Structures are given as C-alpha cells and as structure tokens.
Amino acid sequence: MDRALELFLKRGFEVTTVAAIAAAVGMAKRSVYARYPNKAALFKASVQRAIEQWTVPVEALRRAESDDLEATLIAVARIRMANATTPAGLRLQRIVNTESYRFPEIFTQAFEQGTRPTIDFLADLLRRHTQAGRVSIAEPEIAATAFLSMVVGGPLRAVVWGKAIDPTAMEERIRFCVRLFLDGARPR
Fold first, then answer.
1. Mean pLDDT, residues 25-45
2. Which of the residues 10, 11, 18, 149 has the least number of beta carbons within 10 Å of its own beta carbon?
C-alpha cells in the first residue's frame, strides 16, 4: 500500500494503473485484484494506511500533559508538528490535497481519525483548566481547533508546498502562538 500511495502521488489517481502498482511491488495484477475489487478500493486502503501511520496516539498527548498548561500546549504543538512533517505525514497531506475533490471522504477520514482525537484531548484539557479557574474558555472545542490551526496549520501548509522550516524559527513560532492563545484565554 505504501508503494501504491507513492505512485498515486507521483502520477495521480487517473494515470496510475493497478498494473503499474502490481509491477512496482513484484505482484501479478490478479493478486492485487484478489485483495481489492478495483483501483478506487486500493487507493482508499492506501490512504487509510497513511492515516493510521500519521495519527498521533492520544496516549502520547497524555504523556506530554503536566500541571503547567503552557508547557502542555507547547509539548502538544511540538508533537503535532513533528508528526505532520514526517515523510508519512507529508505524503498524507499531499494526497488529501490532490485527490479529495475526487474522494471527499478522505479529508473527513483524515480529520476524524487523525485530528479529531487531538482536538478532543485539547478540549478536555481546556475544560479542566477552565474549571480550575486558570483560563476562561466558553467553547473548548472551537478553542482547541483554533489552537491547532495557529500552531500547525500555517506552518504545515508551507512545508507541504516545499518550504523548509528552520527548527529555531518553528520553536519561536510555537511559543509565540501558545502565549498569544493563553493571553486570549485568561480570565478577565
């Protein structure tokens, strides 16, 4: 499936053939069709595998949590950026960007399986810190989504487009965005 995804990325869904995928992995075309009824099914299975490889386990986010909300948010931002900028993460972003018009469900799939768990974790974290009086956030899910957009969305888009990110500048951006987010969330 990894090789299939690479070919779909390189050539696009339309041009990539099952015969080319089979040849690339040293299989007979009929062996591929024995597992997948058609090219679309193989494509969707390869995207699903990419999502599974890219998804940050919630346990990793929980291990990053501390009593210090700022430190936790910085850690979560680092985890998400590091994961999103791996070769597997970038492949997934590129395939979703290029083929979601044809397969709109892959965007939803990637969001629900890969991003939604992080949003849920952050929303729960923000709820607990609101209850403790450390922040005042009326809409934790919206705030969690906004936070991820700030720290991951823009930089990731630049990386997907081929721009290199300086690690020092990325760290400064993460810290700036976390402080900006927390300044807006402090009780008034």
1. 93
2. 10
